[in-house]
Write a structure and sequence with these properties.
Order of helices and strands: EHEHEHEHEHHEHEHEHHHH
CATH topology: TIM Barrel
Largest sheet: 8 strands, parallel
CATH class: Alpha Beta
Strand order of the largest sheet: 1-8-7-6-5-4-3-2
Strand content: 5-15%
Number of helices: 12
Helix content: 40-55%
Radius of gyration: 18 Å
Distance between the termini: 39 Å
Structural class: alpha/beta
CATH superfamily: Aldolase class I
Number of domains: 1
Number of strands: 8
């Protein structure tokens, strides 16, 4: 599995009905849309999927529906981030029973943790299943930073095979690449603006919110770097940055879901208390997608 986790792996938006139950028909449509655009894997229950706000029933529905629809065509990673280790292990076992290929976990959030506590958390997770685990470094939301020394220590565990780095720090990302030069460690960029640079620098792939909306652009960045065409990679990166800038100027999750609706996937409501869009903001998104020839 280690060699199969690479390239563009969108962190799926979670299509929700107005009552915040999962819209399984639209989940299947989103999976089909992304696979048709050539993505290399899918990540369920990441930040983009609004995982902290979902009910357990919604999480289980999302995991099961995605895995059924994918049916082994690409690797499916499942997020198991929780405030406590036992809670995270329960999701490892639930996702494993559904056939997940790998798990992704950030450090426990809410409490600030020592390095020893973080090490123990990930070692217990990695021991809980024979399937591989990827670390998720996103200190802006967890308040717990995975330092380079911590990452190196955890990489010695045979079941910890990689990391998604969402620090937004390109210098730190480069340090990870250099530190793992002699190891087959999967290194994924979580910042949408740094995909091209990270792949050029030696990253394995990327997990990015906007890859839900413009997956073909992210795949074009990846393909361009693989063939050594830096100019094309940077061209598509610039286009990604423009759409990302728009989404960051409106309520992000609602904006992403509105863009998906316009592209044929009705991702529905956002989880409370996330904001919805004004009519003016919806029009902004439509105009941008038209300008980029993403919709008629």
């Amino acid at each position: 599995m280690r060699n199969k986790i690479r390239g563009i792996i969108p962190p799926l938006a979670t299509p929700l009905k107005d009552d915040e139950t999962v819209d399984k028909e639209q989940v299947r449509r989103l999976v089909s849309f992304l696979l048709e655009k050539g993505v290399h894997g899918l990540f369920v229950l990441g930040s983009t999927g609004e995982f902290p706000a979902l009910t357990d029933e919604a999480k289980r529905g999302m995991i099961g529906t995605v895995l059924q629809e994918v049916h082994g065509r690409v690797p499916v990673l499942v997020g198991v981030t929780e405030p406590g280790t036992k809670r995270a292990i329960s999701w490892v076992r639930a996702a494993e029973s559904e056939g997940a290929d790998a798990f992704v976990a950030a450090p426990p959030y809410y409490f600030r943790h020592t390095e020893n506590e973080i090490l123990r958390h990930f070692q217990m997770l990695a021991d809980a299943s024979p399937r591989p685990l990827l670390l998720y470094n996103i200190p802006v939301t967890t308040q717990n930073f995975l330092s380079l020394s911590t990452i190196i220590k955890l990489s010695d565990h045979p079941n910890i095979i990689g990391i998604k780095d969402s620090t937004g720090d390109m210098a730190f990302f480069s340090q990870i690449v250099d530190a793992m030069e002699e190891k087959p460690f999967v290194i994924l960029q979580g910042d949408d603006r740094l995909v091209a640079l990270s792949l050029i620098r030696g990253g394995t792939g990327a997990i990015n919110s906007c890859a839900n909306l413009v997956p073909e652009w992210f795949v074009s960045v990846y393909d361009a770097v693989q063939r050594g065409d830096v100019a094309s990679a940077l061209f598509y990166q610039k286009k990604i940055n423009q759409v990302l800038g728009l989404l960051e100027s409106v309520p992000f999750f609602a904006g992403l879901k509105e863009g998906l609706r316009l592209r044929g996937v009705n991702a529905g409501a956002v989880s409370a208390p996330l904001e919805t869009l004004s009519e003016q903001e919806k029009e902004q998104i439509k105009v941008t997608l038209v300008r980029h020839h993403l919709i008629p």
